[in-house]
């Protein structure tokens, strides 16, 4: 479902508590089309990856206790941008209207005659309760829920609550911005008559893979949360429902929860592996040590396309090749039928999927995703004597396939290189900085080229003791390259595909617990 975004309009959008999966479909759709996005630091930067490349994002770093940009300036910025006839998203953590000062922004827009829409988000209390397994309302235990703010607003425009008033409410108390004021809050609740054994939970960085939970009681919570050095952003839950939480903490018990894993692939290709790992709770750092750049010779394209129907097979070795090939074909012919009746073979599932996205059938895809396996499969499939094959590739890794099809299979092979791998400048890359500072548990290599580029980019890095990452390899070929660089292999996937690689990663961490 897509919402058509209008120019000159301000969308106040809730970015949810952190997990990018918790934004609404409407919020995502608006973000994808926005021209300008003005966001706070409670917003997970991952959702900004959805913006179109030419969109501008403006950070107005608003966090509890410190305002890098005063609210008046944010209001003025909104008005200024809206007058430029662009679509603007004011993106706020959680729900924009829950302790988010959106009301003041709405007032400003209203008086400036600027139209706006509000897209609600999942507020931190609801999300944290779910991710910690706390039923915030429960029959016979608590039938009311109160959202409170513990912090005095730094600009002193909000009221300072007296928590004594809530001690007898019998409600589940969900206290936002309560960490800095925890002693006062606990003191007032006790003074107001709340039993010292009342269960309390604090959920820090809820729904992020770095989520931590502290379960305690009213009289113990200060000591316990200090022992864990719990910090903002965190929600404090007070009430008997905390004891009814499920004993199975589904989120924090995920098999890769809290494991930091580096995925050294170009961004476009990293997504699938990262997603699989994140599903298991891993904290994934994508660092694009290499990037893909279009690189082809117009004359060879013209030659190949003129004769495209003469190929019995078209072989793709990567999804980049697939997408570029069909883009170029479309530019030349505007008709998919121009491909004729050639059969298609691919290395790897992701490549096959890219072909399927163009509504074409993949006739051959060996289970093991490497060039040798594809050469074996083609040679076994039929005699290739004098059969014309087109090999769509990048600038690397096609020699084996080319030689084997030509020499062993005696096929007539034309190569069509469409892109090259280039090294990326990582000096400004935040994930790379994080990696340098705090290391990772493991780096997952999915190809020899990523190994080469990783080695290049990290050769002068000194990891602090104990932070040296372990290396996982997707298969035999990649392991060979790792060995050449004297990099110890912690585990190797028995089959060179992403699903198997993830299964192997899970079993590695299970066994090293
Ligand atoms: N509009 C936001 C709340 C902003 S106030 C919402 O609806 O969630 C900021 C406070 O929200 C933080 O101090 C913290 O108490 C809470 N908060 C926001 N994100 C959180 C998270 N991921 N985990 C725990 N608490 C969070």
Give a structural overview:
About 30% of the residues lie in helices and about 20% in strands. The chain is of the alpha/beta class and about 525 residues long. The chain folds into four domains: about 10-120, Cobalt-precorrin-4 Transmethylase, domain 1 (3-Layer(aba) Sandwich); about 125-245, 2-Layer Sandwich (Methyltransferase, Cobalt-precorrin-4 Transmethylase, Domain 2), CATH 3.30.950.10; about 260-290 and about 425-510, Rossmann fold, CATH 3.40.50; about 290-425, 3-Layer(aba) Sandwich (Rossmann fold), CATH 3.40.50.10090. The strands form five sheets. Strands 3-2-6-1-7 form a five-stranded parallel beta sheet, sandwiched between helices. The protein has a five-stranded mixed beta sheet with strand order 8-9-12-10-11, with helices on both faces. A five-stranded parallel beta sheet has the order 14-13-20-21-22, with helices on both faces. The protein binds S-adenosyl-L-homocysteine. S-adenosyl-L-homocysteine binds near residues 94, 95 and 99.
Specify the overall morphology.
globular
Total number of beta strands: 22
Largest sheet: 5 strands, parallel
In the predicted model, the low-confidence regions spanning at least 5 consecutive residues are none
As a percent range, the share of helical residues equals 25-40%
């Amino acid at each position: 479902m897509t919402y058509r975004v209008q120019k000159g309009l301000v969308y106040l959008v809730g970015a949810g508590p952190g997990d990018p999966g918790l934004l609404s479909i409407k919020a995502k759709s608006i973000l994808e089309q926005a021209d300008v996005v003005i966001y706070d630091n409670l917003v997970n930067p991952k959702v900004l990856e959805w913006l179109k490349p030419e969109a501008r994002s403006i950070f107005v770093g608003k966090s509890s206790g410190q305002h890098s940009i005063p609210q008046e300036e944010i209001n003025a910025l909104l008005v200024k941008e809206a007058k430029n006839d662009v679509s603007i998203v004011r993106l706020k953590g959680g729900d924009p209207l829950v302790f988010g000062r959106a009301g003041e922004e709405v007032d400003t827009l209203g008086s400036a005659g600027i139209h706006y829409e509000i897209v609600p988000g999942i507020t931190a209390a609801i999300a944290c309760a779910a991710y910690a397994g706390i039923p915030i309302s429960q029959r016979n235990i608590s039938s009311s829920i109160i959202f409170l703010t513990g912090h005095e607003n730094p600009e002193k425009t909000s009221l300072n609550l007296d928590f004594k008033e809530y001690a007898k409410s019998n409600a589940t108390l969900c206290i936002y911005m309560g960490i800095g004021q925890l002693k006062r809050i606990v003191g007032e609740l006790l003074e107001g008559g709340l039993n010292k054994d009342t269960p309390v939970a604090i959920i820090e960085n809820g729904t992020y893979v770095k989520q931590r939970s502290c379960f305690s009681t009213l009289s113990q919570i200060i000591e316990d949360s200090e022992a864990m050095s719990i910090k903002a952003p965190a929600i404090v839950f007070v009430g008997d429902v905390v004891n009814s939480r499920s004993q199975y903490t589904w989120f924090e018990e995920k098999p890769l929860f809290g494991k930091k894993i580096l995925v050294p692939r170009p961004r476009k290709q990293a997504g699938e592996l990262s997603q699989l790992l994140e599903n298991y709770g891993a904290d994934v750092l994508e660092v694009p040590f290499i990037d893909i750049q279009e690189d082809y010779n117009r004359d060879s394209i013209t030659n190949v396309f003129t004769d495209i129907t003469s190929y019995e097979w078209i072989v793709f070795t990567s999804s980049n090749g697939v997408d570029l090939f069909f883009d170029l074909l479309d530019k030349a012919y505007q008709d998919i039928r121009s491909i004729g009746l050639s059969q298609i073979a691919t290395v790897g599932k992701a490549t096959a999927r890219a072909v399927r996205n163009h509504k074409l059938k993949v006739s051959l895809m060996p289970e093991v995703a490497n060039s040798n396996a594809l050469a074996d499969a083609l040679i076994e499939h039929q005699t290739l004597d004098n059969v014309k094959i087109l090999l769509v590739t990048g600038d690397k890794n096609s020699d084996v396939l080319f030689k084997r099809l030509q020499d062993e299979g005696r096929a007539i092979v034309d190569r069509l290189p469409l892109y090259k791998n280039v090294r990326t400048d990582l000096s400004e890359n935040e994930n790379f900085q994080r990696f340098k500072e705090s290391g990772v548990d493991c780096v997952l290599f999915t190809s020899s080229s990523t190994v080469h580029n990783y080695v290049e980019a990290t050769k002068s890095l000194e990891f602090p003791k104990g932070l040296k990452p372990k290396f996982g390899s997707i298969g035999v070929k990649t392991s060979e390259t790792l060995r050449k660089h004297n990099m110890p292999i912690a585990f190797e996937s028995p089959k060179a595909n992403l699903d198997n690689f993830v299964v192997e990663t899970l079993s590695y961490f299970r066994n090293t617990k």
